[in-house]
């Protein structure tokens, strides 16, 4: 029985939102002279919008366009938006390269275990592909990152909470939804995963811990690591009962399978 592991990027591979994307958005706004700076609380609301360009586009009210001196026509606004997003991605990549964005506990370990067991492993995110690949390599190392499939950016017409990115991943990996497990961190991601028929495990973070995860098979504080941060189980609607850290066997249990040893 083939099992596959599919991970979201932001908030799952690393604490990207607070230490990466929010910083990069605000630096971009400053560089372009835009009259906005997002606080952590404001950005938490923006996270309900899937995609960085889409979050930026939410600024384009008539009042903001006038205050920022932006073009009144749609084409001009889209060109400005594209320039902002390019610069924001550059800043984000620089933050990753500088080690400013900490990987989340257990990600490197669980990806290594899955690859060793012969599981297909992928990252499915609607963030920019360059950002996703850089975050993945920082989280699991260059060697493991090369063994992980990446589905990211504008490769699908609809972003999370639509299931499109996960449906693409399943088709490309060649596995049925019943044989794969997703690790997500947000309700939008959970809805995208379950909308594709996938079993979903949630690792919460400061931005998402109060969201509704009723459809998740397992909700934990983090994947945890031996000798490091311990996992706290917040909810389990499956047979999985992780100890101090989430194992590959736990992930197999939530899909109703048994983990194979590599």
Verbal overview:
The chain is of the alpha/beta class and 262 residues long. It contains eleven helices and seven strands. Strands 3-2-1-4-5-6-7 form a seven-stranded mixed sheet, with helices on both faces. Strand 4 (180-184), helix 10 (187-195) and strand 5 form a beta-alpha-beta unit. Helix 1 packs across helix 5 and helix 5 (74-97) packs parallel to helix 7 (129-140). It is elongated and about 60 Å long. It starts with a strand and ends in an 8-residue tail after the last helix.
Query: Strand share of the residues?
Result: 5-15%
N-end to C-end Cα span: 14 Å
Order of helical and strand elements: EHHHHHHEHHEHEHEEEH
Strand order of the largest sheet: 3-2-1-4-5-6-7
Proportion of helical residues: 40-55%
Q: Please tell me how large the radius of gyration is.
A: 19 Å
List key phrases describing it.
262 residues, alpha/beta, 7 strands, elongated
Quick summary:
By secondary structure, this protein is of the alpha/beta class. It has helices spanning 16-31, 40-46, 52-57, 62-68, 74-97, 107-116, 129-140, 142-146, 164-173, 187-195, 248-254; strands at 4-7, 121-125, 149-152, 180-184, 199-203, 218-220, 233-236. Helices cover 43% and strands 11% of the residues.
């Amino acid at each position: 029985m083939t099992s596959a592991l599919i991970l979201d990027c932001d908030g799952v591979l690393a604490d990207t939102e607070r230490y990466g994307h929010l910083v990069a958005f605000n630096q971009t706004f400053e560089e372009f002279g835009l009259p906005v700076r997002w606080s952590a609380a404001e950005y938490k609301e923006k996270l309900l919008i899937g995609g960085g360009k889409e979050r930026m586009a939410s600024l384009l009210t008539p009042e903001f366009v006038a205050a920022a001196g932006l073009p009144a026509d749609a084409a001009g606004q889209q060109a400005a938006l594209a320039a902002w997003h390019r610069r924001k991605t550059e800043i984000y990549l620089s933050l990753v390269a500088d080690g400013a964005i900490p990987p989340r506990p257990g990600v490197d370990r669980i990806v290594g275990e899955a690859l060793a067991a012969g599981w297909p492993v992928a990252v499915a995110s609607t963030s920019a592909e360059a950002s996703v690949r850089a975050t993945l390599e920082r989280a699991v190392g260059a060697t493991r990152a090369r063994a992980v499939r990446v589905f990211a950016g504008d490769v699908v017409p609809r972003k999370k909470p639509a299931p499109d990115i996960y449906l693409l991943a399943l088709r490309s990996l060649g596995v049925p939804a019943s044989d794969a497990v997703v690790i997500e961190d947000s309700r939008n991601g959970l809805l995208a995963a379950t909308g594709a028929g996938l079993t979903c495990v949630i690792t919460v973070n400061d931005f998402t811990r109060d969201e509704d995860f009723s459809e998740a098979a397992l909700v934990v504080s983090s994947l945890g690591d031996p000798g490091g941060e311990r996992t706290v189980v917040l909810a389990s609607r499956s047979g999985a009962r992780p100890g101090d850290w989430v194992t590959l066997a736990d992930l197999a249990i939530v899909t109703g399978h048994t983990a194979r040893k590599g």
